[in-house]
Give the backbone structure.
Amino acid sequence: MHRSLPAAIAAALFLSASTLPGAARADAAATDLDTVLVTATRSEQRLADSLVPAQVIDRTEIERSQARDLIGLLRGRAGIDVGNTGGRGKLSSLFLRGTESDHVLVLVDGVKMNSATAGMAAIQDLPLAQIERIEIIRGPRSSLYGSEAIGGVIQVFTRGSQATGFSPYASVGGGSHDAREASAGFDHRGERGWIGAHGAYDSTDGFNACRGSGALFQGCFADEPDDDGYRSTSVSLRGGYRFGEALVLDGQFLQADAENEFDGSWTNRSRIRQRVTGARLRHAPGDGRLALSLALARNVDRSDDFLDTLPRSDFQTRRDSATVQADVQLASDQLLSLGVDHGNDRVDSATAYAVDERDNTGVFLAYSGQAGAQRLQASVRHDDNEQFGSHVTGALGWGTAFDNGLRLTASLGTGYKAPTFNDLYYPGSESPDLRPEESTSLNLGLSRIAQGHHWSFDVYESRIDDLIVFVYPPPDYRGVGSNVDQARIRGAEFAFGTTLAGIDVALELSHTDPRDRSGGANDGNLLARRARSTGRIDLDRGFGPLRAGITVQGASSRYDDPANTVRLGGYATTDLRLEYALHRDWTLLARASNVFDRQYETVAWYYQPGREYHVALRWRPGR
């Protein structure tokens, strides 16, 4: 049985109404005006001052949600839809504002995570236990980051405390499908130096991921009615030192090793490694007029694939980068940022690629200024790619504030994405003449931040040209890439937050119309695997040492194929959570997910989790 998004929201509003005792009151600010955002402009600014739609999820919200993974934390938030192939750790696609999953740039501490072969980032393997905060930028940012930022940018910052002194923590938990998890770590911050170390283990026996059939050539083309588990071990390190008042050196390291079981006729098990290493030297004199930084980083993405115990393939991509950036304070409310990014992508695989390495150098310039109630942001970037030559992208944003707290914004931006090594040179499907994909996007927004509540409403349109698709012509039906597709995506997003009668309320709704505009047989069809409507509502309230919460999230129907012949029904799920402070240092947590045991699919033939339970015990001194 499936439930539509409107039903989900109706249920959520009914639950919230039945929970409120007496008259509702908005007596606390629902957003922190001083929240800092860095991803939107590559320099620090207040979230409230961003001229592009943005959202910040901090560690407090991560822990409050009791989400088990990054997919669950992001699902249903404004502009975000997810396609998942069978539960924890399974291949997942994240669609931001209806764009492709490889149109979303994912950064970890400023380092690009998108695979140079697959194009998309393995967000299902980023361990939530190692994440301090997440910044989500909706809309193109190629003018600052280059390739892959057509739909937007999601930046993950690894864990680290800003509190002075020694800050340890630990947690342990378990639940349905023999789930087991443990994490521990510490941060220590002195007068000039700081260091932190964090580790986590997470495993589940899972459930049968795929209902396909090898005999009927359906789904995963295999008959494997077994449980498909997932195990992950991760560690992260952070440290830094301040030399005098102007010079700071810091670095970070994250490694996540995972083993994933799934159903398939060619492979059914993978060993995965995600590694990010980076260091930055920053010089910022006390007068604040000029700040210089130099950053060096490396990302390694490795996958070894097996059929049971038989090795089948191995892929490793390495992305090295170096960045020099200068931030010039022209006046108290005028900032100019300029910099150079140089990157080298390399593929190491037993499968031979005709070309396995390339360089890219990008030069960018960004301006942010304010004059009275008017605010302006502009950026331009030139990328020189070893394979595709020059590419110029730009963005312009404007906003004005009114006395009653209302703010009107408008932004226009272009984006592009370079073809991946798989697009160009995958053996047997070589398409070396592919061109980069290009986009133009417009956003109009209206928002208000007032005492006790905040809301925002955005409408947008994106047009994407030269989309890369693979066709399979006879006689051998070998996949060949081609720049034949075009897309037009229109949408709207609404977010609202407040506190009513002591209940924290957060509502996020999205509607998108992602259409094929290629002029062929699928012209006018919806792009595959995107729901047109998504949403979630989160309600939380404290009762002394007890805190209770509910999340209702859902999506409307979607089509699994470009021809729009395979329809997947809409759904809504309800999650309940409790946390109880046993002691100042100890907290007991309990969660029930999908409590009505809804059965649904976001990718055809692949199951999603039914009703699940989870309990955990968390220790953190001094809280």
Observations:
- The longest helix spans residues 5-19.
- The radius of gyration is 24 Å.
- The chain is about 5% helix and 55% strand.
- The helical segments are 5-19, 59-65, 70-74, 142-145, 421-425.
